Amino acid sequence: MELITQPWPWYVAGPLIAMVMFALLYFGESFGISSNLRTLCAISGADKHVAFFRIKKDQHIWNLIFVIGALLGGYLAHHYLVTESPLVLSEKTSLSLEQLGFQTPGTEYLPSEIFGLARLKSFSGWAILLIGGVLVGFGARYAGGCTSGHAISGLSNLQLPSLIAVVGFFIGGLLMVHLIMPLLFAVIN
């Protein structure tokens, strides 16, 4: 049996995502990773101390099943569906990444300069994780949801706040890649 090692084309993945969204709409549910974290915190006892986590836990158990499925899917994809061929990057992108300090751009999906275990042994690695985690947590709470919730669930429900949030996510991503990341790599390398 030959395993699929290429990304699914949009005309397969898109309708599958749409079918999941129709099912969620039918059952009156919304989708988003941050809602999974809210459920996990509520089950862990945070509901006793913070009103935000006081939810009907039994109605949100499906969120945790989703998390288990995402972890299992990530494991299967990493161990059985990853291709050995390198990423195809433009020469300009490769040169830009090398100037930032990446040793071998395009040879791995998760560059070790950012995601390697050696990064966890440094103060800068822990500082980036801590600051990034606080910013993501604050942003998800302030925006009323995360990128997947707003971009997939909110936009499919034609919610104007989700459209505004998604535009903000894209602007933030562009600022990060073009302005903040070069500065950050100049400091930590």
Describe the protein.
- The protein is mainly alpha-helical and 189 residues long.
- It folds into two domains: 82 residues, no CATH class; 74 residues.
- The protein is 66% helix and 0% strand.
- The longest helix is centred in the C-terminal third of the chain and has 29 residues.
- The N and C termini lie far apart (44 Å).
Q: Any idea how many domains?
A: 2
Topology order in helix (H) and strand (E) letters:
HHHHHHHHH
Q: Can you count the helices?
A: 9
Q: In terms of quaternary structure, what is this?
A: single chain
Total DSSP E strands? 0
Strand content: under 5%
Give the low-pLDDT segments. none
State the major sheet.
none
Q: Would you tell me the overall average pLDDT?
A: 82
How far apart the termini lie comes to 44 Å
Q: Give the helix/strand class.
A: mainly alpha
Helix percentage: 55-70%
Specify the overall morphology: globular
Radius of gyration based on Cα positions: 19 Å
Q: Any chance you could write out the topology, listing elements then pairs?
A:
Blueprint: H1 10-26, H2 33-43, H3 61-80, H4 91-100, H5 112-115, H6 117-120, H7 123-142, H8 147-156, H9 160-188
